[in-house]
From TrEMBL:
<dbReference type="GO" id="GO:0000107">
    <property type="term" value="F:imidazoleglycerol-phosphate synthase activity"/>
</dbReference>
<comment type="function">
    <text>IGPS catalyzes the conversion of PRFAR and glutamine to IGP, AICAR and glutamate. The HisH subunit catalyzes the hydrolysis of glutamine to glutamate and ammonia as part of the synthesis of IGP and AICAR. The resulting ammonia molecule is channeled to the active site of HisF.</text>
</comment>
<feature type="domain" description="Glutamine amidotransferase">
    <location>
        <begin position="11"/>
        <end position="211"/>
    </location>
</feature>
<feature type="active site" description="Nucleophile">
    <location>
        <position position="87"/>
    </location>
</feature>
<comment type="pathway">
    <text>Amino-acid biosynthesis; L-histidine biosynthesis; L-histidine from 5-phospho-alpha-D-ribose 1-diphosphate: step 5/9.</text>
</comment>
<keyword id="KW-0456">Lyase</keyword>
<protein>
    <recommendedName>
        <fullName>Imidazole glycerol phosphate synthase subunit HisH</fullName>
        <ecNumber>4.3.2.10</ecNumber>
        <ecNumber>3.5.1.2</ecNumber>
    </recommendedName>
</protein>
<dbReference type="GO" id="GO:0000105">
    <property type="term" value="P:L-histidine biosynthetic process"/>
</dbReference>
<keyword id="KW-0028">Amino-acid biosynthesis</keyword>
<keyword id="KW-0963">Cytoplasm</keyword>
<dbReference type="Pfam" id="PF00117">
    <property type="entry name" value="GATase"/>
</dbReference>
<dbReference type="InterPro" id="IPR017926">
    <property type="entry name" value="GATASE"/>
</dbReference>
<dbReference type="InterPro" id="IPR029062">
    <property type="entry name" value="Class_I_gatase-like"/>
</dbReference>
<feature type="active site">
    <location>
        <position position="199"/>
    </location>
</feature>
<comment type="subunit">
    <text>Heterodimer of HisH and HisF.</text>
</comment>
<dbReference type="GO" id="GO:0004359">
    <property type="term" value="F:glutaminase activity"/>
</dbReference>
<keyword id="KW-0368">Histidine biosynthesis</keyword>
């Protein structure tokens, strides 16, 4: 699939948390021009911004703020510029995260709390299916039984954003179950995110990233 959409310039935000090289390779495979950078202006100018994330919610938020990533995400979204969050890069888009009893503020792009998985086996590590709505653009062309790679101990178990204006498009929310259901992916205007790792999900992940790139 490499070279399919060479005009689409994407930035993988380098703020010290995330598998930036894996994300770069996956986006290149999907056909994008990719730069890894923490430079604010370069990231603002890109067609698409990918925000990775691994580790603890609070640590990722600290790193993001130090890199002005909170401003970057907010400014891009205010201008309708696409952002894709992955793993903890998705979790920090919610209002708050709770780890080991301590609460940390997130970016608050979506209301709700990210908390510990409600499962007997934690972390959730390995391949799992996703229950995506039929109108999902992110999962377009991917069969219902497709498996994606997860590795996490926390998740958003509820979706709390309410659409109050008739002209607004309701977000497309996809779910996965590990012990109990949790949010696996969201498509909300220019802001998309996945709890799983598309860059580690083989051909399925490449197709999913291609679907995102085609919206840029």
């Amino acid at each position: 699939m490499s070279g399919t959409l060479p005009s689409k310039r994407t930035v993988v935000l380098d703020y010290g948390f995330g598998n930036v090289r894996s994300a770069q390779r996956a986006l290149e495979r999907a056909g994008a021009q990719v730069e890894i950078t923490g430079d604010y202006d370069t990231a603002m100018a890109a067609d698409g911004l990918l925000v990775p994330g691994v580790g603890a919610f609070a640590a990722c938020m600290t790193g993001l703020r130090e890199a002005r990533g909170d401003w970057l995400v907010g400014r891009r979204l205010a201008g309708g510029r696409p952002v894709l969050g992955i793993c903890v890069g998705m979790q920090i888009l919610f209002a708050r995260g709770v780890e080991h009893g301590a609460e940390s503020a997130g970016l608050d792009e979506w209301p709700g709390t990210v908390g510990p998985l409600r499962a007997d086996v934690v972390p959730h590590m390995g391949w799992n299916t996703v229950d995506a709505p039929a109108d999902s653009r992110l999962f377009r062309g991917l069969p219902d039984d497709t498996r994606y790679y997860f590795v996490h101990s926390y998740a958003a178990h509820d979706w709390e954003l309410e659409v109050t204006h008739a002209a607004m498009r309701a977000p497309t929310v996809s779910w996965t179950t590990h012990g109990s259901p949790f949010v696996a992916a969201v498509e909300n205007g220019p802001l998309w995110a996945t709890q799983f790792h598309p860059e580690k999900s083989g051909d399925a992940g490449a197709q999913l990233l291609t679907n995102w790139i085609e919206t840029l």
